[in-house]
Amino acid sequence: MKYRMTDETKIVYGLTLHRIEATVDFAEVKSGEKGGWIGSEANLSQEGKAWVGDEARVYGKARVGGEAQVGDEAWVYGKAQVGDEARVYGKAQVGGEAWVYGKAQVGDEARVEKPIPCDGNGCGCSCHA
Prior knowledge:
Layout: E1 3-12, E2 15-22, E3 34-38, E4 51-52, E5 57-58, E6 63-64, E7 69-70, E8 75-76, E9 81-82, E10 87-88, E11 93-96, E12 99-100, E13 105-106, E14 111-114
Parallel strand pairs: 3-5, 4-7, 5-8, 6-9, 7-10, 8-11, 9-12, 10-13, 11-14
Antiparallel strand pairs: 1-2, 2-3
């Protein structure tokens, strides 16, 4: 395991997010370094060099993997996926069923979203995120 979920929590849209902490050195992250906020371990891969840092938030059924970096005050939610060497930073938001891959960068206050059809039953759409 490269990180653990700490007991430090915050509530976002009724969901409990946990701050993460690195348990080993990888990429530019050092063991013991505090990261951003995730809803569950399903949100951030334990493999590769992917990281959620700073005050960034990843929740819902969203997933960050590969060598992707989510930082600053960025949000990734819904069923969005961020992978490869992609970077999401600033106050950017990636949501719905959007995929950000390759060496793509989404920053500043950009918003990338592919709407999820709402079935009203835990679908992960932004109206239930």
